[in-house]
Amino acid sequence: MSMPGLYVHIPFCLRKCHYCDFVSYPNMENSIDEYIDALLTEAKLNDAFFSSRRIDTVFIGGGTPSLLSPSQIERLVCGLQSLPNFNPTEFTIESNPETITDTKLAAYANAGINRLSIGLQCHDNDILRAIGRGHTYQNFLTAYKLAANHFDNINVDTIFGLPNQTLESFRETLRQLIELSPTHISSYSLKLEQGTNLYSSFYGIDDETDREMYHTAIEMLSDTGYFHYETSNFSQQGFECKHNMKYWTGEEYLGLGVAAHSYYDGNTRTNNTDNLMQYIQMLSNGEKPTVNTITLSNADMLEDYIMLHLRLVEGIVFDDFYNKFNTSFQNEYADAITFAKDAGLITITDSSVHPTIKGFDLQNTLISEFMKKM
Ligand code: SF4
Fold it and tell me: What is the CA(291)–ligand 1 centre distance, in A?
């Protein structure tokens, strides 16, 4: 029986952060109850998926899932628990510091949630305000300390390349976090997305500083016992995010909720409508909210496999590639391997190729070299 991941999208937020282009709706808390009804209806409509698989990981993401009240979370999780073969080993919920309370944390833990992800982004209150976040660093510290009473697996999200953020300021964010010692830290370079408030007022930092910040994260976190296992993700031993690993290694997952994506049956990708009211309406009519279904060709699957595996420190393992595509990676991609090795973008061992730090820096170049053959 395969062991997929389940993603549940909660699209509600208190406000829209200035850099955010996720599907998230501010000031729509009145719709949360009917949205939970819709999520649970969507889960039931996927009964065939759940009956033939055992859900291994769950990730309630957003948006701001910690906006939900304890009773709303209990109702949602209780509905999920009634699905066939629902027995996750890792069960994460995302949260924002200003919405965390001790009562909510206790409700998460009682409901079987065993991993908390907190969006810090940085420790500087002026920068947090400038990017439209609703919390201060003090809010984060209070939330983190409360969370540590309920969870022994906590992720903290950080972003570098923010407006007015210096290298020293980013170092200080990392120093403070290392002192708290969460089991997992994500550190993403800010992406300026068209249509966001920040896009029109900030041009981004220069590439050199951006890369210095990235290298700083790798050095400081590696030096303090964090394993750099994916481009932007670091964990203490044994605390890699199992759910996200399913995305990066091409395992199945089902997404519930507005704008959620799914991947299953080896070659099928689907996505749901990204319109909240349409999503609720379709489910109240008993219809699945899927608006796109794509059957992947072998070339699509090869492309996805290479793109995703080159984000991982373990890279492309030859035996795994052979088992999946029945052909030798070394033979198929001999020219790209030679180019990438000579350019210092990958290291080759007897069993795998994996990106070097330069390969992570120039990830697009690295991936496009392998895509040339497609
Ligand atoms: S809290 Fe997250 S999802 Fe919500 S607006 Fe801010 S960045 Fe976007």
Answer: 24
